Amino acid sequence: MSNSSESILANGYSIFHGTDAWRAFSKFINLGAKTYASVNILVDAQVEQFCLPALIEKAPSLANASIIRIPSGEASKNIDTVIQIWKTLQENGATRHSLLINLGGGVITDTGGFAASTFKRGMDFINIPTTLLGQVDAAIGGKTGIDFLEIKNQVGLIKCPAAVFVFPEYLKTQDHEQLRSGYAEILKYGLITDKQLWESAISNHSDFSNYSESTWRELIQKSLIIKNDIVLKDPEEQGLRKLLNFGHTVGHAIEAHALKNDELPISHGRAVAIGMICEAYISSRVLNLSTAELDQIAQALLRIFEKGDLLIPDDSTLIELMRHDKKNVNSNISFTLLNSIASAEIDQHCETKIISEALNYYRDL
């Protein structure tokens, strides 16, 4: 693998993230004008207002692209939205030789990637993530998909984009809660592989107001390299890639419960932060995570993701949702757990009473 300050070579495509990313994007679009039959851009209302103009300014030829609009938020990450995208592509005369540009957060890149990968048996797509969560996680790695029957990411496939372009400037359009959501994934990368990244991220965090574009660029680059290295070794998530699921077994269940019950939405990052605290507790009971490191993890995450008024549902409800997690084997709920900070183990299991203990540990903090 060859990485430069400007790009990262992924599994058959490049992630452009450095100061020259806009130049790389313009070059891609200019070449694509000769290659693709047509170009469509997938957006939601906020992205169309705050992010699309800058994209067209950098690549004026996109002024002629067809815009596909979908509702924002996790609730739109479903088969009805995919059908809407397919229908619009069909109406626009798109072919398998067309291009779909997914401009937005994880819902856009997950849903758009799935729609493009299945339309006419597959058309090219590129991801331009506009959220921190998308820039460090959702837009890379090739996972596409939708929620189904209120369970997260139940239908989808692994299909890599033609390219990914990461522009930290777009983070200026994000509020603090959206930035926190992505920050949870940066903290996760530190906890599973890189103690220095973990310590730097928790010590430098305030309210993000002192984060310069260069600071974001450095954090994003470190995160991209960690995730890409893992994905390259295990693109189909048969083993090592499961490391990236730390915090997500509990976190996805919390997200799914909120979605299923039409509660106030909880951000992915906040749900994963709760999941990391709970799964750190399970790590202390199942593996060798020390009490001192468990306390450090819990207190650091609570400083960034204060508990507020969020209530975790009853144990049996969450555990039942965890049983539907796609990572499970047979009837066992699978976790990625920590031996210590920066040392993780995949395919770990425990009795449901320990899961209940972990949920109560969080409730009592």
What does this structure look like?
The protein is α/β, with parallel strands linked by helices. The chain has two domains: 7-173, Rossmann fold (3-Layer(aba) Sandwich), CATH 3.40.50; 176-364, Dehydroquinate synthase-like - alpha domain (Dehydroquinate synthase-like, alpha domain), CATH 1.20.1090.10. Helix content is 48%, strand content 15%. The protein contains 14 helices and eleven strands. Strands 1-2-9-6-5-3-4 form a seven-stranded mixed β-sheet, with helices on both faces. Strands 7-8 form a two-stranded antiparallel sheet. A two-stranded antiparallel ribbon has the order 10-11. A hairpin with a 4-residue loop joins strand 1 (7-9) and strand 2. Helix 11 (268-286) packs antiparallel against helix 12 (291-304). It is globular and about 60 Å long.
Task: Write a brief structural summary.
With 365 residues, the protein is an alpha/beta fold. It folds into two domains: 7-173, Rossmann fold (3-Layer(aba) Sandwich), CATH 3.40.50.1970; 176-364, Dehydroquinate synthase-like, alpha domain (Up-down Bundle), CATH 1.20.1090. It has helices at 21-35, 45-50, 52-58, 79-91, 106-118, 132-138, 176-193, 195-204, 213-233, 248-260, 268-286, 291-304, 315-322, 352-364, and strands spanning 7-9, 14-16, 39-43, 66-69, 99-104, 124-129, 143-148, 151-158, 163-165, 335-340, 343-348.
Give the topology, please.
Elements: E1 7-9, E2 14-16, H1 21-35, E3 39-43, H2 45-50, H3 52-58, E4 66-69, H4 79-91, E5 99-104, H5 106-118, E6 124-129, H6 132-138, E7 143-148, E8 151-158, E9 163-165, H7 176-193, H8 195-204, H9 213-233, H10 248-260, H11 268-286, H12 291-304, H13 315-322, E10 335-340, E11 343-348, H14 352-364
Parallel strand pairs: 2-9, 3-4, 3-5, 5-6, 6-9
Antiparallel strand pairs: 1-2, 7-8, 10-11
